[in-house]
Amino acid sequence: MADVNRGNRPLSPHLQVYRPQLTSVTSILTRITGNALIVSALLIAWWFLAAATSPEYFAIANGLLTSWFGDLVMVLSALGLWYHTLAGIRHLIWDNGMMLELEQAEKLGWFVVIGSAVLTVLTIIIV
Known about the structure:
Blueprint: H1 14-17, H2 22-53, H3 55-65, H4 68-95, H5 102-126
């Protein structure tokens, strides 16, 4: 027989008491950065397409991508690219059955977060 009190129970009680862990947050950020990189790739493809189309159209696209907003998008794209790359390396390490203990997994998480920030700063300085 169906549970008549089904509507009185909370849908997800674990969401009210769950404390996000570094490994879960970094996993979620990996998915977010992957999707954000698709948007960045589309912007860069649009810039190349505009360059191949006409000087007027390229001026519009280049104006957007070289503005403060375009600079912000490109810096965040570099951060996302480094983060996504380092998180992918972390997952390759885990796929080989290494560093799966909680303490080591958290160290890898911090390595991904700090490493992506450092590599982004180096990219800005070099480029």
